[in-house]
Amino acid sequence: MSRAALLVIDVQRDFCPGGALAVKDGDEVVPAINRVVAGFDRAKLPIFFTRDWHPPDHTSFKGQGGPWPPHCVQGTGGAAFHPSLRIPTSAVVISKGDDQSKEAYSGFQGTDLATRLRGLGIKEVFIAGLTTDYCVKETATDARKAGFAVKVIGDCIKAVDAKPGDGVRAILKMKKEGARLVDSSSVIRLLASTQQ
Description:
This protein is α/β, with parallel strands linked by helices. It is 29% helix and 19% strand. It has helices at residues 30-42, 113-119, 132-145, 166-176, 184-194, and strands spanning 4-9, 47-52, 92-96, 124-130, 149-158, 180-182. The longest helix has 14 residues, at 132-145. The two termini are 13 Å apart.
């Protein structure tokens, strides 16, 4: 296994049931993500958690002419990570979308994530989280553009499906860009084998 990092994308309260921009069953990815996080933690490999961290008047909000209801506003309960999400003390949190005038679906957009990964000698990223058709897709696409090998953990992602089939189309787009789809159990086995 090449030098790898885990990117957990936007598993925040507002994207889970009961949140301002809830993904149907979005919280169901948390147990599988926690298992993968534990595997990376045991292997002492880097883990990054991205989060939307919007100002109250963010350009993506309907009040400013954007497509979305206000969500993940800085410092609010909705911007907090899901309470069951396991976040190791060694993990790095990357905040995105904190510029009022700029949208940022990708964890690489307007952040130092690529620089941090390169500084750690990372060659490959594993991606999990919310949502398949927006932030996961854009993060995977930007990771490929930045030269990283990309594996998307299929049972650790969920789609908004604002238009029916958006999630499926997003997976096809990520594959076309060179990402591979894997499942959490195979990732955990791979991590365990590197420690023997």
